[in-house]
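ok, trying the design again with the full structure, not the truncated one.
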């Protein structure tokens, strides 16, 4: 079972959907930054852009690492990262290609469909 997290930039809300691994199999080979149709996730009319994700073992995807598997790379801490400037650290990251070992995919809505993502809450009668 995999999870997709869909961010709505207009409202600032995120929506979480659980999907089967066979749907992830249909997305195999796509990269971070690719746009996909929302019909994969029962959201007709929507267009979604892949912004990141993580593998089954928790390693995050990195946009500028063009492989499908994991790799240990040396990163430098600079602005926006904790630590002193100039400190380098070897970390394990996953490449930007979606594979069958993905457990979470992060997406953002680029085109909206006819139906809203949030289901309207039913009015309960007073008791």
């Amino acid at each position: 079972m995999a999870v997709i997290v869909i961010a709505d930039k207009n409202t600032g809300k995120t929506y979480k959907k659980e999907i089967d691994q066979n749907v992830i199999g249909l997305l195999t080979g796509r990269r971070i930054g690719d746009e996909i149709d929302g019909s994969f996730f029962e959201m007709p009319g929507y267009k979604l852009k892949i912004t990141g994700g993580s593998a089954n073992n928790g390693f995050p995807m990195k946009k500028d690492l063009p492989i499908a598997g994991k790799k240990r790379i040396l990163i430098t801490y600079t602005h926006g990262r904790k630590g002193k400037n100039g400190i380098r650290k070897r970390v394990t990251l996953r490449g930007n290609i979606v594979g069958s070992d993905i457990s979470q995919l992060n997406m953002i809505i680029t085109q909206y469909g006819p139906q809203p993502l949030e289901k309207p809450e039913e009015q309960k009668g007073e008791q």
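Keeping the full-length input from now on. Residues 122-127 have pLDDT under 50 and may be disordered.
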